[in-house]
Amino acid sequence: MTQVNHTALLALFDRELREGARPDGPGVRVERTGDVVRQVATAQGWNGVLWSALDEAAADAAIAGQIAHYTGLGLAFEWKLYGHDRPADLGQRLRAAGFRPEPEETLMIGEIAALSLDAEPPEGVRVVPVTGPRGVDLVAEVHEKAFGADSTWLREELLARLSADPDTVVAVVAMAGDEPVSAARMELVPGARFAGLWGGGTVEGWRGRGIYRALVAHRAHAAAARGYRYLQVDASGQSRPILERLGFTPLTTTTPYVYTP
């Protein structure tokens, strides 16, 4: 892709998934207030700023306004900052206002038709679609083992999505016999051209065997079958080189800035 294509693709991503964001689950709302687009959910869901179009004169007031809004609801929230967001010192302003930055990731996008999608799971491992509570439990188990993090929110969100709006999420778990060894999900926004890849955690001891690649390929085929053109990933330093080899392009950085009342 040329640099012009990068710019156009990033603008399309911003327009469809950030400025034009839709609620990511039942009981969730997206609000547009001034030059900020935010999502408001329960304390277990994802709360935060998805998009902003701020200049230096308006930034501090907009930050204070979001803090007041979420604090008034008793909610911690995230300001999802991208490397091309303005003003250029928005990250510094967020830190000065009391936000804590989490590790930076890389926004990567791949055009599905141009990706290398022939990856198969290693021998003895099979990819199983998640359709109900038993599968959700397996995904949550992998999440806890792979990331060392509580998975209560993931279990609740996946169950709600599969029950209320199953066309907006695809979840899979890789099984070695009866043992779940990797899991991932894909979020689908109706009418958008981008499908989002999330999760992608593999239990230690099973890493480096190609399972992550196989789960990317599985979800890519599922997205293509549903008419999506692009895949979008917030890639860690571990997954970025794998995704680049599959044909994904790094476009910008993304950093979660978290505010806890």
What does this structure look like?
By secondary structure, this protein is an alpha+beta fold. The chain folds into two domains: 3-104, no CATH class; 111-252, 3-Layer(aba) Sandwich (Aminopeptidase), CATH 3.40.630.30. 35% of the residues lie in helices and 30% in strands. The protein is built from seven helices and twelve strands. Strands 1, 2, 3, 4, 5, 6, 7, 8, 9, 10, 11 and 12 form a twelve-stranded mixed sheet that branches. β8 (169-176) and β9 (179-188) form a beta hairpin. The protein is globular, with a radius of gyration of 18 Å. The model has no long low-confidence stretch (mean pLDDT 95).
Structurally, the number of domains stands at: 2
Q: So, CATH architecture of the largest domain? A: 3-Layer(aba) Sandwich
First-residue to last-residue Cα separation:
43 Å
Q: What would the CATH topology of the largest domain be?
A: Aminopeptidase
Strand-residue proportion: 25-35%
Q: What shape does the CA trace take?
A: globular
Rg over alpha carbons: 18 Å
Arithmetic mean pLDDT: 95
CATH class of the largest domain: Alpha Beta
Helix content: 25-40%
CATH superfamily of the largest domain: Gcn5-related N-acetyltransferase (GNAT)
Quaternary status: single chain
Helix vs. strand class: alpha+beta
Low-confidence stretches: none
- Count every helix, treating DSSP H or I runs of 4 or more residues as helices: 7
Number of strands: 12
Largest sheet: 12 strands, mixed
Order of helices and strands: HEEEHEHEEEHHEEEHEHE
Domain N-acetyltransferase: 125-261
InterPro entries: Acyl_CoA_acyltransferase, GNAT_dom
Protein name: GNAT superfamily N-acetyltransferase
Organism: Streptomyces africanus
